């Protein structure tokens, strides 16, 4: 990040971050950018990535004995830049390459896994009854139940897109005391648009007021701003910012001027981790039958 200078005050972004999001845009008079080595020659190694010099309003440009009052209100909406389509593949199909057996051997689509979670080569002599990709368990034969394979939900879960998107009649194991007892058919149902559940277009409102005056010997600018932004994610409070700024210049004598700049800013940001492993990243890989707004799973699943 570059080094920021606001009204002659150095702001190190490595300590406090970029000040651009904390300054009321109506207070900015000019922004000058000094690139590369030129900035370092003026301000040292901290400016190796350049310098951004920000000058705010101080009332200097007004005619003598003139007071300027500016009030502004801005209202708008936040939306996603694009809509993400529904996922029609089960998570185990999307991320099947990340699954391994009990010995750390990569499990590919179509592989066999035994009841101990180990990879079994179906062409080998060690394949046992029950060591199948999806076992057909005999509920009336306890001995065969013990030989049944661990269920690897890859192929049995699949979605089709004919007319309404429905869950195909897939097979799922019925477990009793942790052991497979049989198979059941999953009921059909519409896929859930998790993008609509997770995101909701929100509004933002910004109010600001500035008073500036020049008396000849003294000029000043006083401003206040308040911004409230709902954001686009359900359940979060969004973003709020309040700023207060006072800048005064007083000419003591023709060759001596005293200047004072004060600034106060308060920012409340309710956001989520947006990197790999964050909520949005995980949602993209969530199965299309998962209801993000369901507090409790339906009975019997």
From TrEMBL:
Signal peptide positions (record): none
TonB-dependent receptor plug domain sequence ranges: 2-51
Pfam family of the protein (one): Plug
Name used for this protein in its record: TonB-dependent receptor plug domain-containing protein
Organism of origin: marine metagenome
């Amino acid at each position: 990040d570059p080094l920021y200078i606001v009204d002659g005050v150095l702001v190190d972004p490595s300590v406090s971050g970029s000040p651009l999001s904390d300054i009321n845009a109506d207070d900015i008079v000019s922004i000058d950018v000094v690139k590369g080595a030129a900035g370092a020659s003026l301000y040292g190694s901290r400016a190796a990535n350049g310098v951004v010099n920000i000058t705010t309003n101080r009332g200097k440009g007004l005619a003598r004995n003139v007071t300027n009052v500016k009030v502004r209100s801005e209202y708008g909406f936040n939306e996603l830049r694009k809509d993400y389509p529904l996922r029609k593949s089960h998570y185990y199909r999307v991320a099947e390459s990340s699954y391994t057996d009990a010995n750390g051997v990569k499990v590919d689509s179509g592989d066999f896994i035994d009841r101990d979670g180990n990879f079994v080569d179906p062409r080998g002599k060690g394949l046992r009854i029950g060591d199948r990709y999806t076992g057909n368990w005999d509920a009336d034969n306890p001995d065969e139940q013990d030989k049944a394979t661990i269920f690897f939900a890859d192929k049995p879960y699949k979605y089709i897109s004919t007319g309404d998107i429905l869950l195909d009649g897939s097979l799922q194991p019925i477990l009793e005391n942790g052991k497979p007892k049989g198979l059941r058919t999953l009921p059909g149902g519409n896929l859930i648009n998790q993008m609509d559940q997770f995101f909701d277009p929100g509004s933002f409102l910004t109010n600001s007021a500035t008073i500036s005056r020049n008396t000849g010997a003294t000029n000043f600018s006083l401003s206040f701003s308040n911004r409230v932004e709902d954001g686009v994610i359900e359940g979060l409070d969004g973003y709020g910012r309040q700023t207060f700024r006072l800048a005064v210049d007083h000419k003591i004598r023709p060759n001596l001027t005293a200047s004072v700049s004060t600034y106060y800013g308060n920012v409340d940001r309710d956001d989520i981790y947006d990197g790999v492993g964050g909520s949005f990243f995980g949602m993209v890989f969530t199965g299309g039958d998962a209801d993000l707004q369901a507090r409790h799973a339906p009975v019997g699943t």
